[in-house]
Design brief:
The chain is mainly β. The chain is built from ten helices and 40 strands. Strands 17, 18, 20, 21, 22, 23, 25, 26, 29, 30 and 31 form an eleven-stranded antiparallel beta sheet that branches. Strands 12-11-16-15-14-13 form a six-stranded mixed beta sheet, with no helix packed on it. Strands 4, 5, 8, 9 and 10 form a five-stranded antiparallel beta sheet that branches. A hairpin with a 6-residue loop joins strand 25 and strand 26 (514-518). It is globular. The two termini are 31 Å apart.
Length: 731
């Protein structure tokens, strides 16, 4: 159900958004990054014609799969009417391609479908929603009576990264008890708060601005959450535990430890912390990763949108996109967000990788300066043959970079207390690198259309350029502390490769290959003053129905193959997918027949199942034909005959983004975080009713809300009774 509200914008928004992405989300989530000139103004020259060995070409043979229908399970999952499922388009053969979870691919859903759509034979339930209480003293959520104190005891807003860990670190599989860990990225006050004087300053003309009370609630809604969950058996749905000694909320008043080579530096000291080793809070926590030793990493992404540009280093502030005002307004409440006298370094204390131990509720989370400071989408760790921790990271900005960190020390085997204590120090010291990609095709063959060069693939070689190595700076004119605090400036100096918003970076558990989601880049156009088409970023425009649309609107996925061990500084690479509507020229799906793939655009978060299939969640998907579609989750085999066979598994409700995918093929379950549903609505005129779907005129039950709530969702097989129909009995 979708309502077209009488909407009065409470923010200054712009019309630069494309597809389904709302200008409101652009303003709140990334501070209108696409509207401003790219902070990267470096004039690096990278792509030269080279003679190198590259991946062998292969002829991709597609196989026909059994067509299956899609079922919309949105409102009906909780007792309200469902949307109608679309029929499969002629000529596409979705099905059970590849190993792992079997399903029939669903169709893309129109942008106004306010339902969670999953394949036939599956159903869904919420695990936990914004406002659900998780700490002692937390009350049942009442959307009309929110407070900072209650929000600090409740599940926060706009969940992103997600994992469900076994209840004990030594266990290898999820049993009947687990620990759910989720990032809570940012807030949308228009959909959160009632239009009353309790939350807003209301002017005579009726315009509203947030007051200090609602801003305090926002700060409590940011951060992370740790929640115990239980179920009756594998493959069955989870319920969260309202009270558990493991439950925890991380927010803007939580104390963090700064560690690593930059900890204690003058660049990190403030009036509130003369040591430069402790900081309150974490913000804009986007994607993350779970380490082999059972801790969770969280990336502080668009931190620039919370600070006013009055810092000690104006050049660095500009490079990180810190402006003269914010949409949050927290600078009116705390001097650190204004970077006023004594707090000139406060912004330097954000933009790090955070490590949290969910098994130790009393431990302080750590910000690792050794891993560099930028707009971290997240970090994912694998182990080298000799036991070094190797982390891959993306800097989510147009024309920014891909990074790698290699620990100095090696992992300790086993699950003893000593081993866990040692392993939690692995990310505190090591070498930091940034990627340089080189194409192997003549520059003239990369014309910006997405058309493949004559050798049949976008591919080439690459090198990890050192920024800090063996405890020394490898960047001329910069100390180790400066490299780590101003990592973007350091990467500019060494000539790293500008990419199209490199977001999540994941490592295949089967092959060890690395995959980078480049979401999009509206600034890479035929006349861009920053950079035009390059082989790793080959699209500057597309032609739809005879009209040229500038920019890389749909994004792509890069596959990196290390030349030896994960610690190697050399690699080869290729583009697995050049995303978009397969009916439009300039798309590519690893050679798989285009007529058999699901349309996909704006890849964001990545995940792997146990069989080695890649799963891609999307953010801002504009179905390349110019008609916006709901975002979704897609399965893509990356090896064998099915390589490149994109198949859509689910679609999220109106206005929402698909985040934090987790695929447990052993249990036959899939988990996603549904972020910012109904993003362009208001509290009084919602544009989504997910997930409670309270019918019009019906008073919500205690804890429910007739409006949108960011939610952790579980998708599982629907039990069938012998008489037909679904059976969702939890017993």
């Amino acid at each position: 159900m979708t309502i077209a509200p009488e909407h009065r914008s409470l923010l200054t928004v712009h019309t630069h958004a494309r597809g389904k992405r709302s200008p409101v989300t652009c303003r709140l989530k990334c501070n209108d990054a696409c509207l401003h000139p790219a902070p990267n103004e470096s004039a690096n020259e990278y792509f030269k014609d080279v003679v190198s060995s590259v991946l062998s070409r292969r002829a991709m043979l597609g196989t026909l799969a059994v067509a299956a229908g899609a079922v919309v399970i949105g409102a009906q999952g909780v007792g309200a009417p469902s949307a109608a499922a679309a029929t499969l388009p002629e000529g596409r053969f979705p099905g059970h391609g590849g190993r792992g979870l079997a399903f029939g691919a669903i169709d893309p859903q129109p942008v106004d479908v306010d339902a969670l759509v999953v394949p036939e034979g599956y159903t869904w339930d919420p695990i936990i929603r914004w406002g659900d209480p998780i700490l002692p003293g937390g009350r049942t959520f009442d959307p009309n009576n929110q407070s900072p104190q209650q929000q600090a005891k409740q599940f926060g807003y706009n969940c992103d990264y997600l994992d469900i860990l076994p209840i004990r670190p030594r266990e290898k599989h999820r049993g009947t008890r687990g620990i759910l860990v989720s990032n809570l990225e940012y807030t949308n006050p228009e959909t959160m708060f009632p239009p009353t004087e309790r939350y807003w300053d209301i002017a005579a003309d009726g315009s509203r601005t947030k007051n200090a009370y609602s801003r305090a609630i926002e700060r409590a809604a940011h951060g992370m959450a740790v929640v115990e969950v239980r179920r009756r058996g594998t493959g069955k749905p989870w319920d969260y535990q309202r009270i558990s000694v493991l439950n925890r909320r991380i927010h803007m008043d939580t104390e963090f430890v700064l560690d690593g080579p930059a900890a204690g530096s003058d660049l990190l000291k403030t009036a509130a912390d003369s040591t430069g080793r402790r900081v309150l809070g974490t913000m804009n926590n986007c994607a993350g990763g779970t380490t082999p030793w059972g801790t969770v990493l969280s990336g502080e992404e668009n931190f620039n949108g919370y600070f006013v540009a009055a810092g000690a280093n104006p050049t660095a502030d500009a490079r990180y996109g810190i402006g003269s005002s914010t949409s949050y307004g927290w600078e009116a409440d705390e001097p650190r967000f204004a970077q006023s006298e004594g707090y000139e370094n406060e912004a330097n204390r954000f933009g790090w990788i955070v490590e949290l131990d969910p098994y130790d509720p009393d431990s302080k989370p750590v910000k690792h300066t050794a891993m560099g400071r930028f707009k971290h989408e997240g970090a994912n760790v694998t182990l080298s043959r000799k036991g070094h921790a190797v982390a891959y990271m993306g800097d989510d900005q147009a024309f920014d970079y891909v990074y790698k960190f290699v620990s100095k020390d090696r992992v300790a085997k086993g699950d003893s207390r000593w081993a866990r204590r040692h392993n939690k120090t692995l990310l505190s010291e090591g070498d930091l690198f940034v990627a340089k990609f080189t194409g192997d095709s003549p520059a003239a063959e990369i014309d910006g259309s997405g058309a493949l060069p004559s050798d049949g693939a976008f591919d080439g070689t690459g090198e990890w350029l050192p920024l800090v190595q063996d405890g020394r700076s490898k960047v001329a004119g910069m100390s180790v502390e400066e490299v780590l605090v101003y990592t973007r400036l350091a990467a500019d100096k060494v000539g790293a490769t500008k990419m199209d918003r490199p977001e999540d970076v994941e490592i295949s558990p089967v092959t060890g290959r690395i995959y980078v989601a480049c979401t999009n880049n509206s600034g890479r156009t035929p006349t861009s003053t920053v950079e035009g088409a390059t082989e790793p970023n080959p699209r500057t425009h597309k032609v739809v129905n005879g009209a040229t649309i500038n920019g890389n609107r749909d994004g792509h996925v890069v596959e990196i193959i290390p030349s030896g061990d994960q610690t190697s500084t050399r690699f080869t690479w290729n583009l697995l997918i050049v995303a978009g509507d397969p009916a439009v020229e300039g798309t590519y799906f690893a050679g798989y027949p285009k007529e058999r793939v699901s349309p996909i655009s704006c890849p964001d978060n990545l995940a792997f199942d146990a069989e080695g299939n890649l799963w891609i969640s999307t953010d801002g998907q504009p179905s390349s034909s110019g008609i916006a579609k709901c975002d979704g989750l897609f399965k893509v085999p990356v090896t064998g005959r099915e390589r490149g066979h994109v198949q859509q598994f689910l679609s999220v409700p109106a206005g929402a983004e698909t985040c934090g995918p987790l695929v447990d093929s052993r249990d036959g379950m899939v988990y996603v975080n549904v972020q910012h549903p109904g993003e362009d609505g208001t509290f009084a005129a919602p544009q989504s009713f997910f997930p409670d779907y309270v019918p019009a005129g019906v008073r919500p039950e205690a804890g429910d809300f007739r409006g949108p709530r960011p939610t952790v969702v579980q998708v599982y097989r629907e039990r069938r009774s012998p008489w037909g129909g679904g059976d969702r009995d939890r017993d």
